[in-house]
Design goal:
D-Maltodextrin-Binding Protein, domain 2, 4,5-dihydroxyphthalate decarboxylase, 5-stranded mixed beta sheet
């Protein structure tokens, strides 16, 4: 059968998208473009059969019973303590200073924002209902998100100014963004200068390694060919494994980053030997945490179960 896959350009999927790894039973056409375009076109028009998709958008689709299903492949994972920015030299120096603050977000349903708000609430005790949230474009005004704020939360849509402009002017106390606020590196600084150490300690304590994106299939594809989910999953796993092998290769410089192998070995040790896990059970603590955050923040009307996110064909793998 013929399928079209849209996914961003990652080393850990490149062997699949370049055709060096085959999906059993599938003739695959691969499209690569910015993730924002992939998300928009798949969500709005279902232009391809298999798509990279933000985890936040996906869980809202599951809650709404839309005909889409994901496999437990997570092409983008990023810790988000580092996604919270404040004005350099301002009064906000620690999370406690954000009580009653004005915090800007480019999109309430952005996965990075869900994780960052969850961290502020659960790790630092910030009551999200005590914050005045402002939604606007990060760099350009005019980005407007249509949604109903969760009960008890105030979310104001600002169409005439950007988040960066408002933060620099003192009209916001902080912003939460997946994209760093480039061009204002000295005036805007991370809330946590030691974010990596905080993220590492959080992972050690909770087992959570934040997931940003999943790989989703159109429901009609899975209904007609239920075997395709497991075959796609196996191909993505092989592509990831080849990428990790390249990172670990000490013989040549496969990536232009000095001491990369040293960093990779340390990361593997931090993550129990698997720094980029796929599959359901290996990611259950992460998925359960996100589903809890999503419900608390109004993305889903009820608390979803992990089992609702993935079809039965990929919730377990065979072993020999």
């Amino acid at each position: 059968m013929r399928l079209t896959l849209a996914v961003s350009d990652y080393d850990h999927v490149r062997d699949l998208t370049a055709g060096r790894i085959a999906v059993e039973g599938v003739e695959l056409t691969c499209l690569q473009m910015p993730v924002e375009e992939i998300f928009f076109r798949f969500t709005a028009f279902r232009e391809w059969h298999v798509s990279e998709l933000s985890l936040a958008k996906y869980v809202t689709m599951v809650a709404a019973r839309e005909p889409v299903a994901a496999i437990p492949v997570f092409p983008s994972r990023v810790f988000r303590h580092s996604a919270i920015y404040v004005r350099g030299g301002g009064h906000v120096r620690e999370p406690a200073d954000l009580a009653g603050a004005r915090i800007g977000v480019p999109e309430w349903f952005q996965t990075a924002g869900v994780w960052a708000r969850g961290v502020l609430a659960h790790e630092f005790g910030l009551r999200l209902t005590d914050v005045r949230w402002v939604q606007a474009g990060l760099r350009q005004p005019g980005r407007q998100e249509q949604f109903t704020p969760p009960a008890g939360m105030t979310v104001v849509v600002e169409s005439g100014r950007s988040l960066i402009d408002m933060l620099l002017a003192g009209d916001l106390d902080a912003i939460v963004t997946a994209r760093p606020p480039e061009g204002a590196e000295h005036a805007i600084v991370p809330l946590f200068p030691d974010a990596a150490e905080r993220e590492r300690e959080w992972h050690r304590r909770t087992g959570v390694q934040p997931i940003m994106h999943v790989i989703a299939l159109r429901g009609d594809v899975l209904d007609a060919h239920p075997w395709v989910a497991a075959n796609l999953y196996q191909a993505f796993v092989e592509a990831r494994d080849r990428s990790l092998a390249r990172v670990a290769d000490l013989n040549v410089s496969r990536f232009p980053v000095p001491w990369l192998q040293t960093y990779a070995r340390a990361a593997a040790a931090d993550f129990g030997g698997d720094p980029f896990p796929y599959g359901v059970e290996a990611n259950r603590p992460t998925l359960e945490a996100f589903l809890g955050y999503a419900h608390e923040q109004g993305l889903t009307p009820r608390l979803l179960r992990v089992e609702e996110l993935f079809p039965a064909q990929v919730r377990r793998q065979y072993r020999i």
